[in-house]
Please model this.
Amino acid sequence: MSIQKYSPEKLASWPIVPGDYAVNRGARDSPVAVAVLRTANEEEAKQGKPEEKAKMELENSLVDLALRSGAAIAGIYRTANLGIEYIIANTVSNPNIRWLIVVGLGENGHRAGRALLGLWFRGVDEKTGKILEDVPRGYISNVSLRAVERFRRQVVLIPALAKYDDLPSGAYLAEVTVGSKTLRVPVRGRVDQTNRYIECLIVCRKYIREVVEFLVHSCLQEYENRVTIGSIEHLYDFAYPVHNLTLYDPGAYPEPPMSREEIFIQRVTTARTVSAVPEVVTATTPVAAVSRKRGIAPKLILMNQDMFFVDFGWMCWGRFKNIAVAYEFLKDYIVKNGISRPTRYGDTFEINLVEDILEHPWFEFDEREGRIVVVDYDFSYVEQTSYPLRDKEGLKKEYIEDILNGVWHDPGKVAYSYGAELRKFNAEVKVFLERIIKDKIKSYLIPDLAELALTVLWDDIMRTLFGQFAEGDGILVVDQLQALIDAIRRLGIEERCFVVSFWNPLLDTPAKRAQPCVVTLHFLYRPDEKTLNLIAFMRSHDFLNAHLSNYYMLAALLQYIIWKLKKLEPERYSDLEAGTIRWVITSCHIYKHHVCK
Model:
């Protein structure tokens, strides 16, 4: 039976976006793409940690195996947002691709495996772009909804994330003949060689290579040689079961390739003229009276039971009942009244200076096995808004708890994390300098000596290079949260020196990395109210997508410090309560392509 293919000559510019993948140039008409989930810690693998190094080598070998088996494209993906967007773009731009095999040795910290399965099986929220799955960072922000739906129609996703390390009880290796090859396959139940039927395919780490080769080869077959799989035991089979999957090459998808302009959301590039805001002045308000006396009358003053807001043109100031009121009011205000500013990440609507004073949510904490745990917290403010991240467990685990405990996901790829800056300040400097030093050693020494220096002598090299700054095998790392609590107890809470810094002058002032948006936090006690207050300074703020997450971080941090002080010295701090949070933002902006979407 002949099948229709889209001419490879018309795919000369495919793939259309770069990435960590390889292309089988001789098989552009192949119906198979393979996405290998990166589960290895790449930084530890590069440092020679045996377990992570072996895992990374196996994952890389799966890419090579997929291409040798006949896949058109195979590569590594890591994240639940950009990584998936690139997979979508390179799929819908080649109609010949009809199968996407998602392979992994398990799951990674981003839960990118579950995110990709969730996107294909369930789709995305049309308004927010959030993947309809329990993955906090799973947002499709740059790819159009039309491209997402085309992706879901064009390909069939085959989940092959390992559920087991080895063959489970009752499973076995069966020899199955597919086309011209006889392959070993981990299975459970009946195998019908005549009709090429497998009752259940098992995905386990030990035989992941056999699974990949079998799936790719089966997808290349003509209909007469088709293979049917009754079910697949994979990591998420409880949520995304597979039933009676028939593998063969169905030919090209009956629509032409999507172009970049069709795939990606087009950002607004035309200049936006901001009309003057009508002047609304209430003469009895103190702000209006003071500003008129100074000759700087406000452009706008709004007052009601939930908020008081004043706009001077050069500055905005607001006191809001709670974070939900602030978010819903300001997201519309910024778009309507902000200036137009181009940035390297896209054009924005921007208010140059905003100060929020807000009531904040409550938290309940505990400490278990040396880890700070959020037992419960008030999520109601998020539920009152249209905020994209509407996952209570995700916000608690991936944002609040990770920051309080100093978790730094994927330090080899992520420039900074608030958790690492809070609990391991200078950890980024250590990683940055280690990378430079290791590169220099490799360039100056012959390979054998370089390997010796990087393994046997590495601790001595670190201590020699950093002198009194060395602690163990690296740079001195500061736990700012613990140091701040210790300083409050030692000096007394009335002091004015309790400051946390996320800005690292060694890396951020010379712009050697993507700089943190939150710069400093100042914790200040008011003896008349017996409250600990927080003044946060933020240089740059993606308001639409980060406002509530950032604010919950600030509120949790303030309340944890109070909770910890009461736990350590209950008599001394029994009357201490959380006061206000003043949040000063110098560039409060919303990206135009998010608004357009």
About this structure: The mean pLDDT is 83. The longest strand covers residues 181-192. The chain has 19 helices and 27 strands.
